[in-house]
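Section handout 9: paired folding examples.
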Amino acid sequence: MSTEIVIPPMGESITEGIVATWLKGDGEYVERDEEIVEIETDKITMPVPSPASGVLKHTAHEGDTIEVGGVVGAIDESAKAPEKAAASKSEPAKAEKKSEPKPAPAASKPAPAAAAPSGGGGGGTILDASRITPVAKKLADENHLDLSGVSGTGPGGRIREQDVLALMQTRKNGSAPTGSRAPVSAAAAPGARTVRRERMTPLRQKIASRLVEAQHTAAMLTTFNECDMTNVMGLRSAWKDEFEKMHGVKLGFMSFFVKAACSALKKFPNVNASIVDGEKGPEVEYHDYCDVAVAVGTDKGLVVPVLRNADGLGFAGVESGILELAHKARENRLTLEDMQGGTFTISNGGVYGSMMSTPILNPPQSGILGMHNIIRRAVESPDKPGSGEVVIRPMMYLALSYDHRIVDGAGAVGFLKHVKECIEDPRRMLLGV
């Protein structure tokens, strides 16, 4: 009896997916509900469990685009479990054999699941076939790479294609990481003029589409301001150890900006609104809650999971919520629920060293706050305004991009000024002023 493996429904707007990674090899025995393949869509990467126990047969290859409901493989349920699996379910009495002396290495049979060293050369550590995807192994073999020292980013530490590409890029940049043996390829020679094309992933296609949509549909403008980080940095330094000890999460800068943005959204509700289609034309939909989307960079692109009801969370709740979303994003565990909704977005380009940028709206939202790098600069003393006295302070540029169709310039400037005031005097957030 054979059971088909189909791509399950993943949301109303998702009609197809790409076979990103086979987590189990063709002809390998799998257990029911064991994750066997990852399907990548324009929003999430979702693992698909096995519908039955048996031998797996691939009918789709990595990189193939399959419609929702389409078949990617099958499970032969008539196949018997291998002896190794059967032994694990045997009676406890059989476990006594473990105490018997092991046969000499020369008499032992090679493990069939072990893969040959990448590249076919000697001296490499043998990798178990389950630790590397077929595409990654092929790429490593073609470029004579030893992957024994590579930490995979796939489920369970499995080495994927992007891990091999990252190793190749490191080699090209002049370093020699552990596990490398031979030159990457002749194309990596100095002066080589190589060209390489890669298929745009569904996530990257969706990002591109939404960015263009934002430029074409919204009357987008950006206003700037700067804030003095002295008090926030002092508060964080004074309490970060006790905060982490009590709440089990580090106190970062993001929680201050999330809470400051929520405070500003309450005072300027248009920034927390969206334009939607109504029965008699466009309508403005106001939100009495703050679902803040936080931009997270991953190896596949930028994603913006949503922190629900951020206005009702304390600093610890914000930090732990963002940390959980970041982990899920980088481990490809985000769900559609994590990605949908959002009434406002915060993007922190400062972690990459950005000093100034104009963030693009995340449709249908009407505002996005851009944080930037903290630079110590000479400014007039805030304690003595108008005196001309110059002091050195840690300063950050802030940017607010907004949809001018529903947010006026005065409202946008007032919003950003309120965020600045909350950051420069965090007591305002405690008092709600």
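Moving on to protein 2 of 2.
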Amino acid sequence: HNPARWNGFKVKLPTGAPATETVTSELERLAAGVLAEGRVQRVELADAEQRGTIQRFDPAPSYLGRIRSFVDIEEIRNAGMSVLVDSMYGAASGWTAAALAEGSTRVRELHGERNPSFPGLRAPEPIASNLGEFLGLLAQDDFAIGLATDGDGDRFGMGDEHGRFVTQLQTFALLVYYLLEVRGERGSIVRSINTTRMVDKLAERYGCELVETPVGFKHLSAKMTELDALVAGEESAGFGFRGHLPERDGVLSGLYMLDCLTQTKQTPSELLAGLQKLVGPHEYGRVDITMRANDRDDIQQRVADAAPSEVAGIKVTSRDTLDGFRFTLEDGWWLLLRFSGTEPLLRVHAEMPSTEQLQEALQVGQELAGVTL
């Protein structure tokens, strides 16, 4: 989902998990040596295939069989739902429709052709600002739910039956609720530092361990493997599940939400209302501020020196630097300032009990850093 100039390689371990820092550091060392010696070799694709350097395979049969096995696929297929899918021209194009084929549930897909230039999209990230057409269609037509996946198909967004965007934090909380309440499963819940405390309340309610990690799914993946965790989620809408790869999967996330609808006989808006009754209102927001590279040290020092006693009228109880600069407030509310690992951005995150306090907290975060949009 990043702009092309900030693009790079993703390396996976044999388990399907993201490569550890030990592996990526060694790859970076080797790559630097190749570049320094000027011995980069280029081979025509056809020649590489003939030599066996590149091997092609069709993952569809095994992948579709596997993700279907996690849900009552026949009940979903026969539910007669109308589902809108926005694949955002990405790698997940066609997969949801293929998984649900041969039933009365209908899938309409937007941007289903793969196109790495992502025409007309600011970025193929499944958040509200990039899903205008998708949300408009949900509001106009009789869809049960809308499912969206990002450019490489590992992240998941959704809209309700009225065309309202369900935030990535609400989506994670709904998935956790579904696994704990609807399916009756139990296990550790892993979340990144910048995602919702709704799952903390759900973990406490259902007697599950809650584990927090720095941002980056490699950290969540390691904990998933170590603990055989039930589920892991991050703020950027990536969710991983026990029994599958220790990695995110946007298509499986969508199937789980469809299964939740069929098992509960509720609409997305009804599920959200029930979630709010269970854990109370939680409002989340994020502001991304582009900065000049040479301003980073000054911004970092200003935030490091900041010691507010309250944010948006709520007392600050602690601060830490697990990943960025986090100010924890009474009752678990929080404000986080951290630099992007891939782009020259400062991200200001906050989760608060009301929209008014959320906007105030985001403004405080910008003031602490001495930067504004």
